[in-house]
Amino acid sequence: MRVGKVRRKTKETAVEVRINLDGSGRTRVNTKIKFLDHLLASFAKHGCFDLELRARGDFEHHIAEDSMIALGEAIERALGKKAGIQRMGDAVVPMDDALVLAAVDLSGRAYPDIEAKFTKRKLDDLSSDMVVHLLETLATNGRFNLHVQVLRGKNDHHKAEAVFKALGVALARAMSKAPRRRSVPSTKGVL
Questions:
Q1: 55, burial (CB in 10 Å: exposed 0-12, middle 13-18, buried 19+)
Q2: Given pLDDT bands bounded at 50, 70 and 90, which one contains residue 31?
Q3: What is the four-CA torsion angle of 63, 64, 69, 75, rounded to 10 degrees?
Q4: Which of 22, 40, 99, 166 is deepest in the core (most CB within 10 A)?
Q5: Where are the chain's structural domains?
Q6: Torsion over CA: 13, 14, 20, 25 (sign)
Q7: 3-class DSSP string for the chain
């Protein structure tokens, strides 16, 4: 089983993450930010990851950011040497009025490029400007390329949720085993 665990404790936050990349989509997420919990549950459900994440801290920004730092590190740990994986994955996910493209390369190099705009200042109890920052933080700490484009949408809730669903599907595809591949998927021999 590919499982990653991270405990992150700072003067501002305490975060514990456990992710099983070969799970069934079970979640126990509690950040005290309900909309972030919802987004992470959607990510795990559609990626078929078992995710446990508990976070507490002083401010929304610190809690959300440190949660994504720890999640990125846990994903990287769970992947290990990455031998036999597809490495790249993508997804186009509709959610009512919203349509989102997400593409991932588990290259070992962080490169986030996120195009997502929201009209509201808040998405329930999460600042809308945090969505892009959280995705950038996840990709940076997970050491992968992440491209996300919100292709269309009117409802900000739908756009944000479709982003996290697409991320889960794209990551699951990139992490999946390639039946004929035994080595690391790189001409360099390492990722």
A1: buried
A2: very high
A3: 120
A4: 166
A5: 3-175
A6: negative
A7: CCEEEEEEECCCEEEEEEEECCCCCCEEEECCCHHHHHHHHHHHHHHCCEEEEEEEECCHHHHHHHHHHHHHHHHHHHHCCCCCECCEEEEEEEECCEEEEEEEECCCCCEEEEECCCCCCEECCEECCHHHHHHHHHHHHHCCEEEEEEEECCCHHHHHHHHHHHHHHHHHHHHCECCCCCCCCCCCCCC
CATH number for region 3-175: 3.30.230.40
| pLDDT reading at 105 higher than 90 | yes
Other beta carbons within 10 Å of 128: 20
Residue type, 182: R
pLDDT(17) > 80:
yes
Instruction: Give pLDDT, residue 79.
Output: 96
Read off the pLDDT band of 21 (50, 70, 90): very high
pLDDT tens by residue, 135-180: 999 999 999 999 999 999 999 999 999 999 999 999 999 999 887 7
